Amino acid sequence: MPSFDEVLKEAGEFGRFQKRVFFLLSQTGITFSSLFASVVFLGRAPDNFWCRTPGAAELSERCGWTLEEERNFTVLPLRLGNESVSGECERLDVTWDTSASCTSPLARYGNHSTGNLPLAPCHDKWVYQQPHSSIVSEYDLVCGNAWMLDLSQAILNLGFLAGAFVLGYAADRYGRILIYLLSCLGVGICGIIVAFSPNFTIFLIFRFLQGMFGKGTWMTGYVIVTEIVGSDQRIVGIVIQIFFTLGIIILPGIAYLIPTWQGIQLAITLPNFLFLLYYWVVPESPRWLLTRKKGEKALKIMHNIAKHNGKFLSPHYSEITISNEEVSNPSFLDLVRTPQMRRNTLILMYAWFTSALIYQGLVMRLGIIGGNLYLDFFISGAVELPAAFLIIVTIDRIGRRLPFAMSNIVASVACLITAFLPEDIPWLKTTVATLGRLSITIAFEVVYLVNSELYPTTLRNFGVSLCSSLCDLGGIIAPFLLFRLAAIWLELPLIIFSILAAVCGLLVLLLPETKGISLPETVEDVEQLPSNHFGKCGKKWKHRDTNSYI
């Protein structure tokens, strides 16, 4: 019986059918990246707000003041008396006499300077110039509550983490396309609830769930794309990430055109319902079907692929070789039980963690240009585009491992140089820091591809999801690491980033080279992968480019 890769070659490794599926599933990258970075615009700091005290509000109602007049009478005297007090987080701790003069409500305090009047922290009743422009003004995430905005992003990353475990496991057990569609439905429903959350607690709960389902759409769609193409075309795993960058570039345009956070949230959420139409055009992964002993269904899909690609499967392709591994539910022990799998898993987990930590750290530190939020965010996304193109022109020529290692080493050197460059040449510091960000973006994108190529079909979705969960952990730690170390020395985070990237660059050299090699179907296949590009590990593995053994 022919193997799956032999049948795939006959049906077309990247024909019209695969191109259509690739384009459709790539759109998930746009919605996922918009969710990933949405807090920048959902949580914009309000331009103008002030603390409204209850007593002053009653006096304002009696006097018929406008909000601007109330502010002039109750907040401006506070600022005039004490320039260090803005009136945003503190208020005058005085009794507002409802019978006081509407033109001079503080006259009862005589000649006392307002700077000598007692102050009290503001706990609620803030007034915003644009009350629904962001979640900050919607849920009063200002002053003592400002940390809750960081909590909202941490909760989203925790959702990503949960999605990596729960939905990664489910996709390997119940099927790729089923979990993909359920995740799209979950993202859409939870996103709508987030937009109309009556309080911050409900907002956090469903933002967590939206993150969990969002991770399911992105990772499962990515795995489907890499499993239906030939080994020579697995570069699509890099190209699909261009759509992630496109989402980053498009997001500021959406935010610029839509003035409210609810509108932005709906704009990045509702397209997920359109992905449910993929039920009729995107099939289940035939590789996964073979691992579940469903050879007839897999062969039927392969005939359909061949038909759409304008090809015809030979009559003797009545069966496809089915994995001899016993069908079982994936677990973490499966990823570390054998030597090669254990080494791959530990290195990939560290690579994911390092890439995310350094990537997010450099983004937050660099700040791009400053000034216009929309323009700055657009530029920050555009900087990432060259990364995918550099990978595309190198990875199939020199392999995966060398670009993976070199991108980490260059990022390490760039961070180290940036840390010691003098402040009086900011253009050079910005240029070198941007080089570091470009390099770590390359590493970030290569780890997606390498991760999917180093796990067998029976564990691929679970393995990719589990290892990439360290990316979410890095994303949670990054802001705390950056700001705490920067408080000691501004450039100290760059030193830490440099060390982490250098170690990663050396470790990934221990991974097998997967250029031109068929995707492993079983754990035994992974154990037989050559330990390096030029040598042998004492076993034979079929090279996809030459059909010979190494």
TrEMBL record:
Family per UniProt?
Answer: Belongs to the major facilitator (TC 2.A.1) superfamily. Organic cation transporter (TC 2.A.1.19) family.
What stretches pass through the bilayer?
A: 21-42, 151-170, 177-196, 202-224, 236-258, 264-282, 347-368, 374-395, 402-421, 427-450, 462-482, 488-511
Task: Give GO terms: molecular function aspect only.
Answer: monoamine transmembrane transporter activity; neurotransmitter transmembrane transporter activity; quaternary ammonium group transmembrane transporter activity
Q: Known InterPro entries for this protein? A: MFS_dom, MFS_sugar_transport-like, MFS_trans_sf, Orgcat_transp/SVOP, Sugar_transporter_CS
The UniProt entry lists the main location of this chain as membrane
Which catalysed reactions does the entry list for this protein? guanidine(out) = guanidine(in); agmatine(out) = agmatine(in); (R)-salsolinol(in) = (R)-salsolinol(out); spermidine(in) = spermidine(out)
This chain belongs to the protein called Solute carrier family 22 member 3
Any single GO BP term: norepinephrine transport
Task: Describe the location of the Major facilitator superfamily (MFS) profile domain by residue ranges.
Answer: 110-516
Q: Which domain of life is it from?
A: Eukaryota
Task: Name a GO CC annotation attached to this entry.
Answer: nuclear outer membrane
Q: How does it sit in the membrane?
A: Multi-pass membrane protein
The alphabetized UniProt keywords are: Cell membrane, Glycoprotein, Ion transport, Membrane, Mitochondrion, Nucleus, Transmembrane, Transmembrane helix, Transport
Against PROSITE patterns, the record matches this protein to: MFS, SUGAR_TRANSPORT_1
Q: Where in the cell is it found?
A: Apical cell membrane; Basolateral cell membrane; Mitochondrion membrane; Nucleus outer membrane
Q: Which Pfam families match?
A: Sugar_tr
